[in-house]
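Dear colleagues,

As part of the handover before I leave the project, I'm documenting each prediction I ran so the next person doesn't have to rerun anything. This entry is a single chain, and its sequence is reproduced below.
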Amino acid sequence: MNKLTKTIVGFLVLSLLFVLACQNNKGEKTDTILEGKASIYVDESILPIVEDAEAVFEVQYRAKLHLVPQSENEVLNSMFKDTAKIAILTRTLTEDELKAFQSKKINPRITPFATDAVAFIRNKKANDTLIVLQDVIDFIKGKSVPGIKGLVFDNANSSTVRFLSEKAGVVISNQKGIFSQKNNEDVIKYVAENEGLVGVIGMNWIFQPPLELQEQVDKVNVLGVKGNDSSEFIFPTQDNLAIGKYPLARHLYIVNCQGYSGLGMGFASFLGGERGQRIILKSGLVPERIPTRKIVVRNKIIKDKN
């Protein structure tokens, strides 16, 4: 073997080793159940509650979660492209979506962990704090409705748009009087600055807004809603969500497509466990399982000695 041949062979061997090393690094796991790093794609309309849980989880374990807030459609597209392995949504996957994952030999683990609500808001300068769901549906269908000058959504690809489209039985697109913002935060700001409009948001943004948004939240009212099968107006309070009275309630799910015992499994267990469920209860939403309370009964009262 001459010198040139040896050089070529050596180059090819090094190239092969480099390719194999890249493949190994690409498939290398960066997390276990309670340690490491992972990205979680989150439906933007429920971001505040996920941020709360993330903060406690990271303090309790040696883990770093990178939250990626997106619209519902964007999160799903990221999952189908294998960009997102862990996602938090306001609905479970459909049969067709499950089949699409299974065709790629992926079996998503879906864990429900809370009940949230789609809420309507108005500028506080409006005296009316009630709204009829059928009026909203009629407005979406192009009818003129007294008291509603316009509906303000976060964006066309959001879960709130999909949710009300299903309620109305029509696709919400470019109908007259339908306005689109970037996210829930922008909806709150827009309604706080404009009278006569009805904003559509995830309730968690009102229960636990970012500090910098509190001033705008204080300028809006959450509306009581009369459902199509109801004779009374129901506000989206924690009690009404828990007993199933509010007509626009929705469940929250964490979808794990990692395929191994990683932070997707760990965070899902945390959300569904005692600590995570208490965080959800404190946030104003309804946990999937009400956390237990331990009551200690004392027969004697011991006075503290001064």
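The two ends are 95 Å apart (CA to CA). The first strand starts at residue 35 and ends at 43.

All the best with the project,
I.
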